[in-house]
Automatic annotation (TrEMBL):
GO terms for molecular function: phosphoribosylanthranilate isomerase activity. Residues 4-188 form the N-(5'phosphoribosyl) anthranilate isomerase (PRAI) domain. It catalyses: N-(5-phospho-beta-D-ribosyl)anthranilate = 1-(2-carboxyphenylamino)-1-deoxy-D-ribulose 5-phosphate. PANTHER family: N-(5'-PHOSPHORIBOSYL)ANTHRANILATE ISOMERASE. This is N-(5'-phosphoribosyl)anthranilate isomerase. It comes from Lacticaseibacillus paracasei subsp. paracasei Lpp7. The keyword S-adenosyl-L-methionine does not apply.
Amino acid sequence: MVLVKICGLMHSEDILAVNTAGADFAGFVFAPGRHQISLEQALSLKQLLHPKIKTVGVFVNEPVTEILAIYQAGAIDVAQLHGKSTPAEITQLQRAGLKVIQVFERQAIDLTSMADYLMVDSGKGSGQLLNLKAIPHISRPLILAGGLTPLNVRQAVQLVQPTMVDVSSGVETNGHKDADKITQFIQQAKEEAIYEDTK
């Protein structure tokens, strides 16, 4: 069954929504931007999070030392790396115990990457959907992000068959996470997976 990550969580009510809806991963953005939170905020939010939900830290060209400090503080289980990441940096994070997502934005997927997950994205928070038919089917764990909403995620899962789907602005109303949209998104993503399994 496809996994679901809800990203850009900032408030206690966001955590309540993902707990209730049954997300698999919760994303905390440490990179500069509209959804950026501090380590202190992330630790506070994680205390409210269902223990089964893994936390993902989103970084853009952050030094490995800073990522490791956030991990060692107990805020994240997974590092999502945007920008340039060397094989040595990815290996260093993994040796410390982190899982790593390497993000490919509007570029070919590097199948030689050492990362645990490979993510295809249309661009940080662009809200634009990728050309789903152009995404190759690969044997590596693949995460689909960019422009997904409760209205299109079912078709996206059917076409791409990713390991995980990732959404942030697609489950917001007026710039804030919408609990109903989060629930609908997860139901649509996982219903498609159930349908696929029973065909």
